[in-house]
Specification:
The structure holds 2 protein chains of 2 kinds.
Chain A lengths: L1 H24 L5 E2 H10 L6 H13 L3 E6 L7 E6 L1 H25 L1
Antiparallel strand pairs in A: 1-3, 2-3
Chain B lengths: L2 H11 L3 H21 L8 H11 L2 H9 L10 H30 L6 H34 L2 H10 L16 H20 L5 E6 L2 E6 L3 H5 L1 H21 L4 H23 L8 H4 L8 H41 L1
Antiparallel strand pairs in B: 1-2
Helix pairs in contact in B: 1-2, 1-4, 5-6, 6-8, 8-10, 10-11, 11-13
Classes of the chains: A alpha+beta, B mainly alpha.
Chain lengths: 110, 333
């Protein structure tokens, strides 16, 4: 039981680190919060709303995302997020770092 | 007001005013999206709403995830806060012990029936003083926490280079700890002079009666408006320095004006009537009445000494400022 808890905590830390990368990667086209949540979940990346929304705001305040409130298809107003030019540059760099990192770790684990 | 409205308002209560409306709108929009998704449930389906809100989380926790941890005194200024608390507490304790020794030896309360009550009374007073000093420091730092721009401190951390350890300190850099200490001691000084001038005095007991004699004369209080003016300007100047973080010709000139004004005030105070009043009238009826003359003479040196220290410190500072000013001129030529 104790091990299980340790593993859960470590997993949480691991995921926290890669969430920004996951979110940036999925915002090449506009998404609102809940649709992004589902898009991530459909691809196997489960994320809590209470984690996602603050993260979106932080990425936006860092200039990596842009957002605006809009009404699409007569639905209720929703905030749509999309990656910014700066975000694209950062994502490209992160992708490279991620590949190098996974390669290193895979080598270590094999 | 439906349950979702109530929930959103509850989250909003814990959010900073500036971001409140926007975050509330986003949470509401998300909740409605989620509700719609689930078996096409509607706002009227109370059981579904309750289940959804339960899953979304406790309002306070949801709000916290947006704003992160909040501090009364945050980690960036906590080390300075800790240092100042230690210095002030040590100084108060030192002054308290000294005062205790002097009072007890004058009144002979080191032993005998007076001993215990004198001891209790004295230390209760000192403890009270320490608590209020601590409170003042906390208030000053809590205000600083809110007025200092966060980015300045982050930049400093990013810029840090081990090579800096070997370098001479940059003469144009404003020392944060100096500025904070100046603000703090000025605030404490202003509070004491204006609200509790009576604590500057002699405290002693005899025959089971406790007497406290304020020693500042009326003449001292005629200077108080000027002391206050200089104090407030000093605080404003240091707050500005904390924001700017760098000495400029303008701030050096301001500082020279402030210091020269302090020196002028000190000289006027020294030349004027005595700042200490321990005349026979004040001491009448106390065991000290007989030694009034000697006491007045001895205590008469104290303000001169304190003001002389102020003169020297201010003088040195002005000299440094003038030197830096001319050095800058020279370097830029």
């Amino acid at each position: 039981m104790e091990n299980e808890e340790l593993v859960q905590n470590m997993l949480l830390e691991l995921r926290r680190g890669i969430l920004s990368l996951a979110v940036l990667s999925q915002l090449s086209r506009e998404e609102y919060g809940y649709s992004l949540l589902k898009a991530l979940s459909d691809q196997g990346m489960e994320i809590d709303q209470s984690t996602l929304y603050p993260l979106l705001r932080r990425l936006e305040s860092q200039g990596l995302l842009q957002s605006d409130w809009r009404i699409v298809d007569e639905a209720r107003p929703r905030r749509y997020y999309v990656i910014s030019t700066q975000g694209k540059a950062v994502l490209a760099k992160l992708k490279m770092e991620w590949s190098a990192m996974t390669e290193t770790i895979n080598k270590m684990l094999s | 007001m439906n349950l979702i409205d109530k929930y959103v308002a509850e989250v909003g209560k814990h959010l900073p005013r500036k971001q409140r409306a926007d975050i509330e709108k986003e949470i509401r929009s998300t909740l409605e999206d989620m509700l719609e998704e689930r078996n096409q449930a509607s706002l009227k389906d109370e059981a579904a709403v309750v289940a959804l809100l339960k899953e979304y989380g406790e309002p306070r926790r949801v709000a916290e995830s947006y704003i992160g941890p909040r501090y009364l005194i945050g980690p960036r200024i906590f080390p300075t806060f800790e240092l100042i608390v230690k210095i002030v507490m040590a100084a108060l304790l030192g002054a308290g012990l000294l005062g205790y020794g002097v009072s007890a030896s004058i009144t002979g309360s080191f032993a005998g029936p007076d001993f215990l009550s004198f001891l209790t009374e004295f230390w209760t007073g000192l403890l009270g003083g320490m608590f209020s000093a601590f409170g003042t420091i906390v208030i000053v730092f809590a205000i600083l926490e809110r007025v200092l721009p966060a980015s300045e401190f982050e930049k400093e951390e990013e810029k840090w280079d081990p090579a800096d350890l070997a370098k001479e300190p940059d003469p144009d850099e404003v020392k944060i700890s100096d500025a904070i200490a100046t603000i703090l001691f000025t605030v404490i000084g202003l509070v004491i002079f204006n609200l509790y001038p009576n604590v500057i005095g002699l405290f002693f007991g005899a025959d089971g009666e406790w007497t406290f004699i304020p020693i500042l004369s009326d003449a001292f209080f005629t200077y108080l408006p000027w002391i206050n003016l200089l104090g407030v300007l000093q605080i404003a100047f240091n707050l500005y320095q904390l924001r700017e973080r760098v000495w400029t010709t303008f701030t050096r000139l301001c500082n020279i004006v402030l210091e020269v004004s302090s020196i002028a005030l000190v000289i006027i105070m020294l030349k004027g009537p005595s700042l200490i009043d321990l005349g026979a009238g004040k001491l009448a009826g106390t065991p000290l009445a007989d030694v009034s003359d000697v006491l007045t003479k001895v205590m008469g040196f104290v303000p001169g000494l304190v003001l002389a220290i102020v003169l020297i410190v201010s003088g040195v500072e002005v000299a440094q400022m003038v030197y830096r000013l001319f050095n800058i001129r020279y370097e830029t030529k």
